[in-house]
Amino acid sequence: MEISSIRGLPDMTTPPDSISQGTLLGNHNNYVFKACQEAKKTGKRYKHSQPQDHIIAERKRREKLSQRFIALSALVPGLQKTDKASVLGDAIKYLKQLPEKVKALEEEQIMKEILELC
């Protein structure tokens, strides 16, 4: 009996298809091997620069978010504080007030039209 079969490892004559189907015994290396096989199947390649790409993407996301907060703060009238929580809170209050203002203006317009008819 070969040493590799004693340890539960396949010998070099084992076809690759049977290895990828899980003929290895359930040890830690089996999980690593399966993960590598799955990565090959899905076409994922882990590049050395992946962490650097993530850092750059996250920086762009934060910059985009900051620019949108600036744009939102420019739209909300009477904004006192410019921190993100205050901008969001004041924007929510302002948006809730808008339908009430629209309703009041529509009623005012109707009243003017009624007075003009009389």
Automatic annotation (TrEMBL):
Gene Ontology CC terms: nucleus
Record GO terms (molecular function): protein dimerization activity
UniProt KW keywords: Nucleus, Transcription, Transcription regulation
Domain BHLH, chain residue ranges per copy: 49-98
SMART domains noted in UniProt: HLH (SM00353)
UniProt key word Nucleus: yes
Keyword set includes Calcium: no
Pfam family, one: HLH
Region (Disordered): 1-21
Places the protein is found: Nucleus
Major subcellular location class: nucleus
InterPro entries with a match to the protein in the record: bHLH_dom, bHLH_transcription_regulator, HLH_DNA-bd_sf
Native organism: Glycine soja (Wild soybean)
Descriptive protein name: Transcription factor bHLH25
Database matches in Gene3D superfamilies: Helix-loop-helix DNA-binding domain
UniProt superkingdom: Eukaryota
